[in-house]
Design brief:
globular, about 180 residues, 12 strands, alpha+beta, ten-stranded antiparallel beta barrel, about 20% helix
Amino acid sequence: MKLIHRRQVQVLATLQIFGVLAFTSFVTLSRAEEASVEALKAGIEGVYVLQEWHRNGEIFRPPLVDGRAVLLNNRLMFIVRDRAQEPDKTTIAGYATYILEPGKFSYSYEALTVVTQTAGGTSVSEKLPWEGLRTFAASIDNNEIHFRATNGPQEFRFNADGSSYSDGKLMRVYRRVTEK
């Protein structure tokens, strides 16, 4: 039988403790990441109604502007009607895919249609505002979810009452119409 010195026992005990701590912190981190994604998902999914559209220092409300947005199962669908520029009218409809990851939100448009009616006629554009994913850092502060663009001033905020979007300044405000 080989004798183990007291110093060797201390080293082995210390290594075991560090091993248990490392494993525990890894498991805890994994659970926290999963919970984070679930918290983000629970905080953003729902149906929203446009309440305000901020443009050129003015705030437009229904019925001059009207819209709906649905975020569900990594999909975003929306339609907005803008009658604030009478006699011109614009309708914007689109859908996108979004991805939630720990500390990160990304989305990309799959389709976007803008129909503009003027006295001179009707025009239709199906040009996407950008190609690929737009990525945001995700955080939760005081029961409010923040998505801040990693390459720009864009920001989404979600809380139990609704959401808002800004592009350096407040642009749109939505009210949540589904229970959370």
